[in-house]
Design brief:
Elements lengths: L6 E5 L4 H4 L2 H11 L2 E8 L18 H20 L6 E7 L2 H12 L3 E6 L4 H7 L2 H8 L4 E5 L3
Parallel strand pairs: 1-2, 1-4, 2-3, 4-5
């Protein structure tokens, strides 16, 4: 790891799994006097359009964004209020891995800290891995925290 880390990015999906990376991200922010950025990516709602959902209304991007912003505000208050050197939260729409990498580049993140399920085989093939995509495409180091689930 480099000597100077000013900005740490921790993506979240608000799940217990993603929050598992938070203690490590906070410890590193303290150690390096770094600002912590927390990002949530709203997946495009058209991914649901090919599913047979009957009369279920598919939410718009705007509705999803408003809901996510509300959740992120609560997340910040609950989990990030004690960030030792400040924090920033952001909600964007897009493909999760791509947006994590884009945001990391945009803010000049020195480190990304995120969790992974550690799936392999068919389960990995079916579910994919946002963390793996970020590891492959990020310009900065990525610290992958294995889930204990």
């Amino acid at each position: 790891m480099q000597d100077k880390i000013d900005t740490i990015l921790m993506p979240t999906d608000f799940s217990d799994l993603s929050v598992a990376a938070l203690p490590l991200a906070m410890d590193l922010a303290e150690k390096y006097s770094a600002e912590l950025h927390c990002l949530y990516v709203v997946e495009e709602p058209q991914i649901y359009s090919s599913l047979e959902m009957g009369s279920v209304a598919i939410p718009t991007s705007g509705e999803l964004m408003e809901s996510a912003k509300t959740r992120m505000e609560r997340f910040g208050q609950e989990y990030l209020a004690n960030a030792p050197h400040g924090f920033t939260t952001k909600v964007v729409v897009g493909h999760a891995a791509s947006e994590v990498v884009n945001y990391a580049n945009e803010v000049g993140a020195d480190l990304i800290v995120m969790t992974t399920h550690g799936y392999s085989g068919v389960k990995h093939m079916m579910l994919g891995s946002t963390t793996e995509d970020v590891l492959r495409h990020a310009d900065c180091p990525v610290l992958s925290v294995r889930s204990k689930e």
